[in-house]
Amino acid sequence: MSKVAIFEQRPADTIAAESPLHYSLHRHAVSAQGVDSKKGSAVAMAERAFLGHLIVRGSADVLRTAIKKVVGITLPETACGLNVEGGKSIQWLSPDEWLVILPPGEEFATENALRQTLGSNAYAVVNVSGGQTVLTLSGPSAHEVLMKSTPCDVHPHAFPVGRGVSTVFAKTTVLLRRPDAEHWELVIRRSFADYLYRWLLGAGEEYGITTKHT
């Protein structure tokens, strides 16, 4: 068992929590009522707030069994791989680094369980939940909005379901992911959340973009 001091970062339920986009979604939200009824909305943007984010580092040989046992998902070992199952996901970031995203409130128990399972092996687990959030894009024109925002090739043949990359997006960087055929996800840093949200509002305006908080 690791002797690293860890603690529960998530505040108690009695304390009001605000996501990185709390202010933006309240001050700059775009509802369906605000969209031209003749054109309709071809893009929907939403924040998946308060998810658990863990960065896990180590060799695949060390992590493979522990990740499967604790998280319940197979560790993706090919470059840019993304495995999604039951509201959880694991994304390949580099040959010895992965991002684990969990339902809200599961990150502390998962971190403890991983440390218990991995024991004295060489590894690192870091809870970065407070520093990141996830934006989703969906709708028939989501692909066009992405094309306006990143040099990454987002054509379905080049970016199939189950792929995730780190890429330039507007004037910052994101983890761009495709968890299923209907949605795109952007894992973004807290400090750039408002900037990217407003960028996407502008990029999606011609498609009648709407926003919601999930």
Automatic annotation (TrEMBL):
Pfam families: SoxG. InterPro entries: SoxG (IPR007375), SoxG_het (IPR006280), TrmE/GcvT-like (IPR027266). This is Sarcosine oxidase subunit gamma. One of its GO terms (molecular function) is sarcosine oxidase activity. GO terms for biological process: sarcosine catabolic process. It comes from Marinobacter psychrophilus. Signal peptide: none annotated.
